[in-house]
Amino acid sequence: MQIGLVITNDWEVYGNGSGNFFEVQYKPTEELLHVCELYGAKVTLMAEIGQQWAHEALASTQKWAEEIAEVWRQQCCRAVEKGHDVQLHLHPQWLDAHYKNEWKLNLKASSLADFTPSLQENILRRGKDYLEHLLKPVDSSYACVAFRAGTYMIQPSEAVVRALKRTGFLCDTSVTKGLFFRSSHGWYDFQQAPSHYYPWFISNGDVNKSTTEPKG
Fold first, then answer.
1. Which end of the chain is more exposed for a tag (fewer CB within 10 A), N or C?
2. How does the average pLDDT of the chain come out, rounded?
3. Rounded to two decimals, what is the model's pTM?
4. How far is 93 from 150, CA to CA, in rounded Å?
C-alpha cells in the first residue's frame, strides 16, 4: 500500500501580528525548503495574504515594510520555481491592521464567515488574483485553487463555501477532524468531520458533511 503525504505550512508571523518576519517566517521556511529538497519532497506554503497586503500598504512610508513585502514575494517565487506550491491562507484580522510601533490587528474579525457574502467573495478573489499575478510568470501552469482559513475558523461554512466555489477554489484545507475551539473571538468545531485523512466532497456547504459515506 502506498501512502500519500501532503506537507503544508501556514506561512506567517504570529496570529496577533507579533514576531520578527525574518526569524519567525523567512529563515524557518528556507530551512524547511532545504530539507524537503534533500529528500525530494514538495511542500505547499499556505501564504497569509492579509499580512502581505498590510506590509505593502505600509511600504510607501516604512522602508522595513517594503523590504519584508519584497522578500515575501521573492520567497514565494523561488518556492514555485523549485517545484513547491503556494496557496491562499487568510487571517481576516489583518484586513483592518494598522501599525504604530507594533502591529495592531482587529482580533474581532477572526473569521471570513463574519463578513457579508459579497465581501467574502471579493476578498477571496483579490487573494487569488494576487497570487496568480505573482506566480504565473514563474510557472505558467500555476493556479490558486486551495484555501485555508486563519485559525481554521471557516464556520458557519455555507456562505464561505459558496464564495470559494464562485471564485474558482477547488479545495479547502481548514478542517481537521476532532478539533474543537470556542472563545470570544471565534470558534470551530470539526468533531463530526467525515475523516481523519481522506478528502471528501462537501455536502450542502457544511464542511462537516460529505456527499458520500466516509471511508475512515
1. N
2. 94
3. 0.94
4. 9
Distance from C-alpha of 2 to C-alpha of 13, rounded to nearest angstrom: 35
Residues across the chain: 216
Cα–Cα distance, 151 to 199 (Å, whole number)? 20
Q: Write out 123-137 in H/E/C secondary structure.
A: HHHHHHHHHHHHHCC
Interatomic CA distance for residues 149 and 151, integer angstroms: 6
**Grid cell for residue 74:** 521573492
- Residues 45, 85, 173, 155, CA torsion sign: positive
Asked whether the beta carbons of 155 and 189 are under 8 A apart, the reply is yes
Helix extents (H) in the chain:
27-38, 49-58, 63-81, 117-135, 158-166
111's grid cell? 473569521
CB atoms within 10 A of CB 141: 5
pLDDT (tens digit per residue) in 90-114: 999 999 999 999 999 998 888 999 9
User: 117: which 3 cell numbers?
Assistant: 457574502
CB 188 within 8 A of CB 129: no
C-alpha cell at 9: 505550512
- Would you state the torsion angle of the CA atoms of residues 22, 24, 29, 31, taken in this order, to the nearest 10 degrees? 90
CA 32 to each of CA 39, 119, 161, 205: distance values in angstroms, whole numbers, following the listed order: 11, 34, 31, 34
Amino acid at residue number 127: G
